[in-house]
Amino acid sequence: MTRRAVYGVALVAFLAASAMTLAAIIIPKWISWDSETPSGTHIHYTYGLHRRCSSLTGTCDHFPQYDDCHGEDRYFCSMWRSVGWMMSFAVVLEGMTLVAYITILAGGRQKRETGWKVLSSLLLFIAVVQCAGVAIIVSLASSDVCETLPARVILIGMNQAYLYDHDDRFFPGWRLDTSWVLCTVSWIMLVLCAIGIGTSAYVLPSEGGYNLIPDDDEG
Fold it and tell me: Is the per-residue pLDDT at 123 higher than 50?
């Protein structure tokens, strides 16, 4: 596999990861709660970075609102908004990374052989930003300060995350939902892209330069 092919495959994976980042921002499903009343009515709440939705009203409201950012909730509000800012910053960085991809692929052999350092650094930086945002969401869901999310401790595995809570004042059933999963998969893919590009820089041989065409008159 040539360096150009490696960059091409990494670009496709990067675009997929970027699409997941955008979807995580747009879809209001970072944390969700489902329940059913004795009468059989299904209740569904979801929290997104910028919207909060309820099946009872059938609408989504801006979140966090003014009432969510005062008193004891100020910490929660600040941290939640910080995650929104970090995700937006990640999108800006992804735009810069896309330009770097195009520059390297459209450039010559020298850019392909030396550009991996800048590209890998950008990919890892984006992954760190997104991973930090994911960690803050988990921290908020497990914080005693956050009265709006009924969970204290979230246990995380590679393929699942579940809530662990023994306090009767919290409602059961809150879980990390689609947007959180998309963001997690996104930063993992970015790390793999960076590792793949960096590894290819050491494993693949140099593309070589141009060879002169022999002159037919030379004996």
Answer: yes
Rounded to whole angstroms, the Cα distance separating 199 from 190 reads 14
196-215 confidence digits (pLDDT tens): 999 988 887 776 544 445 55
Q: Rounded distance, CA 178 to CA 29, Å?
A: 6
The partner residues of 34 in beta bridges, in order of sequence, read 44
Q: CA 43 to CA 33: how far, in whole Å? A: 8
Let me know if 101 is exposed, middle or buried by CB neighbors in 10 A (0-12, 13-18, 19+).
buried
Q: Determine the pLDDT at residue 140.
A: 66
b/e sequence 200-213, b meaning 16+ C-beta within 10 Å: bbeeeeeeeeeeee
CA atoms within 13 A on the CB side of 26: 7
Q: Report yes or no: 17 and 190 within 8 Å, Cβ to Cβ.
A: yes
Cα three-residue angle 171-176-181, rounded to 5 degrees: 170
Average pLDDT, the chain: 77
Spatial CA neighbour of 131 closest among 141, 123, 119, 142: 123
Q: What angle do CA 187, 189, 142 make, to 5 degrees?
A: 35
